[in-house]
Amino acid sequence: IGVTSSGLHANGISLVIKRALTLPEKLLTKLPNGNTLGEEALIPTRSYVALVEALLEEEVDIHALLPGTGGGVSKVAFDKRAFSYRIHTWVEVPALFQFMRELGVSLESCLAVFNWGIGYYIFVPSSEVSRTISIGQKAGYQLTDVGLVEKGERKVIFEPE
Question: b or e along 84-116 (b: 16 or more beta carbons within 10 Å of the residue's beta carbon)?
Fold first, then answer.
C-alpha cells in the first residue's frame, strides 16, 4: 500500500536545483499547478506517525513499514529475500516530478531518485488491504493499493507509465 507524499521529501533536491539553474527563471519558474519550482521543492515532509499509530491501535497485521525516501521506488525491494514487487497501480504524480520529466529527466532516473508521489509504504497481507486503507483514510491520509509481493527474483516490476 502506498501513502501519498506531500512532495519532494528532500530526496532529489540536488537534481531539482541542478535542473532549475538551467532555466531562465530558475527556482521561480512557474509549474502548471501555479506554484513555483522553489515552492514545490520546499513543501515540508509529511509525518506518518499518526497513521502508524492508528494502524497499531486497530491491530493491523503489518509486515513492514518503509519510508519512500532514499532510493526512490526501487527502495521497495528492501527485503533481501527472493521477492518480486509488482506495482500495478500508481498515485497521481506531483507537478514537480512531472516537470522534471518535461526537463528531460528519464522515467528510470525519476523512479530511482524521487518518491514519485508515494512517501510511505505499508506491507500487509492481502486480507488486510481494504481495512488498512480505510483506517488510513479515517486518520487523514490517502492510501492506495499499488501492488503485491510475489515469490521470485528480487526486483521491482513497475507496470504503470
Answer: bbbbeebbebbbbbbbbeebebeeeebbebbbb
The answer to whether the beta carbons of residues 127 and 74 sit under 8 Å apart is: no
Residue 53's SS3 state is: helix
8 Å CB contact between 15 and 100 = yes
Cα–Cα distance, 68 to 32 (Å, whole number): 25
Q: Locate 74 and state its grid cell.
A: 526501487
Q: Are 19 and 100 in contact (CB under 8 A)?
A: yes
Q: Spell out the domains of the chain, with CATH numbers in brackets.
A: 2-158 (3.90.650.10)
What is the per-residue DSSP string for 101-158? HHTT--HHHHHHHS-TTEEEEEE--GGGHHHHHHHHHHTT--EE--EEEEESSSEEEE
Q: How many residues does the chain have?
A: 161
pLDDT by residue, tens only, the chain of 161 residues = 999 999 998 888 999 999 999 999 999 999 999 999 999 999 999 999 999 999 999 999 999 999 887 666 777 777 788 888 899 999 999 999 999 999 999 988 888 888 899 999 999 999 999 999 999 999 999 999 999 999 989 888 889 87
